[in-house]
Amino acid sequence: MSVIVTDTGFAQDDWTKGFEGANVLDLASDTDPASLADQLGGVEMIRVDFPSFADGRGFTIARMLRLMGYDGRLRARGHVISDQYAMARRVGFDEVEISDELATRQPEAEWKFRANWQSHNYQARLRAQSNAAR
Q1: Under CATH, which number does the domain 2-133 receive?
Q2: Residue 120 above 60 pLDDT?
């Protein structure tokens, strides 16, 4: 089993409910997104594998897919840790899929702590300081 992490916390995977025959694309961490340009039409969800929390290539893949215009569901899957959740959301992932074991080691509260990813970043702090100085 696995746990889906969203901005609201842990959730069950709803993808298998009513999505028989859905067009899902699973990508390894060494995939070149540019090679997928002709294959993205009709893809409803892309899952990008993270074989290790130290392997950040999946973040680049997500960002490139979004820049290429992919607007479907984008899921990071594998060994993403809670400290990386904000980065995952910023580059374009909609959610993260982790193992039950990882969810036990890093409980929901750790993930929810990082769910306010839009306002806790360097650029947002600079904008707030700039606006306060005016």
Answers
A1: 3.40.50
A2: no
